[in-house]
Amino acid sequence: MFKFLKEVVSGSGSGLKDLPYNIGEPYASAWGSWVHYRGTSKDDGSPVSIFSLSGSSSQDRHLAAGRNGVKRLRTVRHPNILSFLHSTEVEGFDGPSQKHTIYIVTEPVMPLSEKLKELNLGGTQRDEYYAWGLHQIAKAVSFLNNDCKLVHGNVCVSSVVVTQTLDWKLHAFDVLSEFDANNEAANSPMLQFEWLVGAQYKPMELSKSEWATIRKSPPWAIDAWGLGCLIYEIFSGLKLTKTEELRNTASIPKSLLPDYQRLLSSAPSRRMNPSKLIDNSEFFQNKLVETIQFMEILNLKDSVEKDSFFRKLPNIAEQLPREIVLKKLLPVLASSLEFGSAAAPALTVLLKMGAWLPPDQFNTKVLPTIVKLFASNDRAIRVSLLQHIDQFGDSLSSQIVDEQVFPHVATGFADTSAFLRELTLKSMLVLAPKLSQRTLSGSLLKYLSKLQVDEEPAIRTNTTILLGNIASYMNDGTRKRVLINAFTVRALRDTFPPARSAGILALTVTSSYYDMTEIATRILPNVAVLTIDPDSDVRTKAFQALDQFLSIARQNHEKLTTGVESNVGNSTGVQPNANSSLLSWAMSSLTQKGKASDHAPIVNANSSTVSSATSNSSLVTDVQSTAPVRTASMSSFEQVAPPSPTRSADGWGDAEDGSVPDLGDEDGGWDDVDPFEEPKPNSLTNIQAAQKRPVSQPKQPAVNSSRAPPATKSTIEAEDDPWGSVTAPVPKPATKTLNPKPASSSSARNDDDLWGSIAAPAPKSTVKPLKPATVNDDSDPWAAIAAPPPTTRAKPLSSLGRGRGTKQSQPKLGAQRIDRTSSSGSSGF
């Protein structure tokens, strides 16, 4: 029999050396003869609690009671009962004498008496926390008495421990026995180890060993008395020494006093059932108990109840004890969010509670949950994460951002919601510094190239601002390939005025990244055009930018003149401090939806005002980008690119790494942006020049004449006219053929002529072709706006009309067939 009990108790180990836990320092108090130690797991170092009980021989009655406690703790499972992990019994020697020891390993807990001293609560906060703890112990006792028909026998402050989340749990099951109500007349002890219970904790019937009376009483009679003793000890702060002290009710709250007196009734049958104590007592109806109970059954609540609860929770958390909020509510809230039972507003509460934690605890208790939430498909959760990313972004490591966060955040770049696209864009200001060069150059810039042509003008503007702010994180090759094309070719030509302003500001902030050649040939010409911009804010920023870049050019000139620096051509020679400040966000797409007029160039300086920009409070700026924005109608103010001495091979360029996911653009990045190599005149100037130029009309072809315009004249005109490439082509001289061919599409419509849409129309020929042909050339981009072919019907040769250049046919001899159709048509003509 002893061997069997030893095998049951010993668990997986046969000795202390096989115990997979390290035993640490003991606590000052424990129940009965047990010693409570701190401990850790040998596998992962996780904390545990280790209880030990020693005896001089294996037949020691304390060891027998301890084996009963181990067996009961192993088999009885409840959320408010201490969780069993491992147990073993070892034999050893304490000097010359033999020693037997039982070890029980449980979840990490702390004696209740020590925890209450550590918390040192007072007033309402103390009562609310005690109410929650008593609520948990009452549920455990009710489970044992009503559901399992077991009697604990010694409920007191020593038999209660507190977990790391400040939950109260019941243990000390050495006296635990079944309630034997079938044999009411028996006088044998029902509790085999009742001698372990102190006299001060025994009710009258137990102290007198009236077992018949006990068997006739309800199963909860003994433990209800124990609950009364526990209430007295925690509120008085004193350990019970004799039964008479229970009559001192000065420390008991008034709302709990009636239930306290019913628990300590002298008649066992009249003592309150612990289950009714939970349901009926007014003392348990407080904010802390109701909040924790709601969160424990969160899955059973509907969305309306959840939203209402989480919106009130921040104010409630302010009123609760800070340590209880951090150790109890915060883990429950994090678990609810992680497993999807909590709504999006709970994330705001989680971050508010997490802000009360030290940085190291925030990284272990809150940050793992947040990282998992980035994989959520709930759009509300994703929006909430992006809105508050500045609160936890600094705590994210570079590896976590690059491998776990960015792949999920990047899906927002292509989201159908403009608001989510904008939040994704703004989050890059926090995440971009933690991205690897592979991800930054190969993936992020491709997404930004799409957003710079987004349908929302605010998103286009903020994309330019973001590029200026993250330029310092790009390598030199990426900056050379991206910045000038993004700012000059796209941003400065945007139809939205704030986008043009953002392009100017981005150029000034990143001025130290451009060499003197780029400044002189690509930046200054593009910025100078904006000095005549209809929008006053754009003009002001353009003049400021010109002053800055001209100052750089002037310093370069002085250094070249004095010969101080020999290699000025590859450096600006100055290091502006503008790069140290960040551009602020221009506006939000929530307030600026980008109407049709917002996408048009500006001509009217007195047009309507758009809502001003929303500034990100976390950014620091030295430039004002929140001025009122004016918009105008779709009239002509086209930004023309100046000549470029160098041409980027790929605009923004392909990703340097071929493993970048395809974003729907085979050319990638900014490939559709090509700086112009040749100077192209302003459209208005071109039209005026074409109208003033005399157009030579070809002579009408005659039947008996074959003269053509002299070739030398057209040659001279072509040499004298610098815009000859955009004027109408000179028509070919007519020939004697009766079927002149219409001008071919290749000669009349040149694919390379980008100005064909505004050139003077080709002269119309008076020759009436016999069979005019309709040419549909899909390769001709200007076919839709070219002059239409002649629509006059050619006169048949057999008609009797007076067509110029035709002769009347000679009558034929003999009988002839009459064509009725032709005859009727001729008579009608």
Automatic annotation (TrEMBL):
Biased composition, class Low complexity, residue ranges: 781-796
Extent of the HEAT repeats: 366-404
Any GO molecular function: ATP binding
Residues covered by region (Disordered): 630-829
Biased composition (Polar residues): 697-715, 736-748
InterPro entries for the chain: ARM-like, ARM-type_fold, CIK-Related_Protein, HEAT_type_2, Kinase-like_dom_sf, Prot_kinase_dom, Ser-Thr/Tyr_kinase_cat_dom
Residue intervals passing through the bilayer: none
UniProt cross-references to PROSITE patterns, sorted A to Z: HEAT_REPEAT, PROTEIN_KINASE_DOM
Residue ranges, compositional bias (Acidic residues): 653-676
Domain Protein kinase: 2-284
PANTHER family: N-TERMINAL KINASE-LIKE PROTEIN (PTHR12984:SF3), SCY1-RELATED S/T PROTEIN KINASE-LIKE (PTHR12984)
Record protein name field: N-terminal kinase-like protein
Organism: Rhynchospora pubera
Phylogenetic placement of the source organism: Eukaryota, Viridiplantae, Streptophyta, Embryophyta, Tracheophyta
